Every structure is written in C-alpha cells, then in structure tokens.
Amino acid sequence: MARTHALESPSVAIAGVTGAVGQEFLAVLAERNFPIGRLKLLASARSAGREVAYGGKTHTIEELKEDSFEGVDLALFSAGGGVSKAFAPLAVDAGCTVIDNSSAFRMAEGVPLVVPEVNPDAIAQAGIGLGAGGRSGIVANPNCSTILMLVVVHPLHAAAGVERIVASTYQAASGGGAAAMSELEQQTRESLDEAGGREVRSKAVFGRTYAFNLFSHNSPLQPNGYNQEELKMVHETHKIWRQDALPEAARTGITATCIRVPVMRAHAESLNLAFTRDLHEDEARELLAAAPGVVVVDDRATETFPTPLDASGTDPVQVGRIRRDLSRPAGRGLDLFLCGDQIRKGAALNAVQIAELLIA
C-alpha cells in the first residue's frame, strides 16, 4: 500500500510492550523525541488493562488482536517470532509498516535487514517508507550480536575489505529477555544463600545453573554443530553486506562461537579480522573513532578497555584491545574486543533508528 502524503507524526504501536525490549522502546522513543501522533500499547491478554506512563500521559495496554493495527502507521514488534509471523502480515495488510525485532523475517526475500550505520539505503531500495510514495511493509532488525559486530567492523570493511571474521561472543542474560535477567539475579541470590545450602533452584529459563557459570548459547543446535545464534551472525552479515547472492567463495568468510555468560546486560565480542589489504592498527583506530555509533576505549597505559558494565545503558558500541594479529602477515589482520548494550543498540535503539529513516 503506497502512501500519498508525508507523515510528520505517525500513529505508533508497540507489540510486546511489557518485555525488556518493549520497555526500552518507550525509553528510546522518548529520549530521541520521536514524533508520535498516537501511541498504542499491545501485549498478551494477561497484560491488558495495565497502565503505562509515556509522554506525560497514561496509556492502557490493549490485548494484541487481528484488528489491532487499523489506523496505525508504524508498529514496533518485540513479542517473539511466533507472534510476529501471525500478526506482522496482518499489520501490513492494514497499511502499517512493521519493524520486527524477531528472527521471523530477517532472511525473507524482499524484507530489508537493516543496521542504520551500515546499510540505511536498503529501506529505500525496498520502497518502504512513511513518507509520500513509500509503501507499507516489514523491515527486520538483525540479531543483537550481528548488529554490535557490524557497527564496528563495517568501517574497517569499507576501507580494507574484510575477507574473514572469527567471532567469539559473550552474551548477557538480557538476550534471553526479562525472565532470563530475573533468573540470573535469583540464581545468584540462591548460590550465595548459606541458609538454603547454596542450592540453585530457579532454572525455568535456561534449565541449568547460570550464576557463576557460562555455557554454549542456548539457541537450538544444528546438524552441522553450529547453534542458531552462530549461524545468524553468518547469514545476516552476508545479507546486510549484499553478499548472500554471491558464490560462497566470493563472500566474507565468517565463523562464530556464541557463549552465554552471567552478565546482566550488554554483550561482548572478541573478533579476529583478516583483510584484503594492509590495515595498520593506528589507521583502524582512526577509522573507528570517526565511525557513527562507535566509541574507542583502548588505553593500554591504564589498561582501560570495553566492559559490559560500562556499556550498559549507553548507545554506542565500545571497541578496544585493537592490535595486530601476530599469526598473519603484518597489516593483514587485527584482533579487537567490543561491548554493546544488547537491549539498546542490539534491539530497541536500532529499531528506533530504522523508524527515523522511515520518516526522513
């Protein structure tokens, strides 16, 4: 459905508003003064009727239903892949544009997968927009680990051609949602409770001890031995960099190992990069210092580098430990370490930045 006029203050719906990302949607929209003509808050039936304050007004949460998107221009979805598959197409049919935070449509043909600092033009190429001439449609938010990685790696790729990425991620409880964050807190209390025998009983989310432990990412393991989280980083990067249609030998080689660590929020990633031309670490620092959405935290004298605690609650992706890969010819490889807030840039902030592109 094409639009005939610009929308300066679109009507906005948030599907899944009671979750960790849904709550962060509200915070980011307010912080960035996103123009909202009318706000509609949607969640499951058990949350319907609850009141939420936003913009100096009290809004009542409504149950998400098939007709929830009538008269809505823009919907931010963070309610899980099943909900997105069921309701996002209905929203589009009603003339609404959807920004979806789940994995439901990321690899779907014709659905732009967008990191605004990397491929903002993908939205216009798909013809989607809230301005005159734009059509309603779905724009997919990439996986949090992919977003954080590409905000840092893309400026280096543009300058020197990244031919291989070896990624190791250390992912916080926030990636599992509010329930996972609560479970980590409860398990930590139980682990330290001498009266309770330090027995961990709260295992509903991950089914194992999370406090003071780490384990392979809990996404389903695939027949090739990779889990879904690891493969998302591979396939999503190829799509964002428009390499998915290329022969495999012509794509950037990417391999990943994703680990869940007992950190409340903000993911960390260790990256090993190989380049098609020499790229000195000093040049890399200059490129990253000038890159949007990136903050270089790399003081060797004081050993000050990115940490999840410092990244939590902030928008930029922090990057440091930038150094030459000693295993490769001089200048042809770098190692670096990054941290970024999974709920903000890894989810809500990236979605709101996409929304800003839609009304530009």
TrEMBL record:
Phosphate binds at R106. InterPro entries: Asp_semialdehyde_DH, Asp_semialdehyde_DH_beta, NAD(P)-bd_dom_sf, Semialdehyde_DH_NAD-bd, Semialdhyde_DH_dimer_dom. Substrate binds at Q171, R260. It is an enzyme of class 1 (oxidoreductase). Residues 11-126 form the Semialdehyde dehydrogenase NAD-binding domain. Keywords: Amino-acid biosynthesis, Diaminopimelate biosynthesis, Lysine biosynthesis, Methionine biosynthesis, NADP, Oxidoreductase, Threonine biosynthesis. NCBIfam families: asd_B, PRK14874.1. This is Aspartate-semialdehyde dehydrogenase.
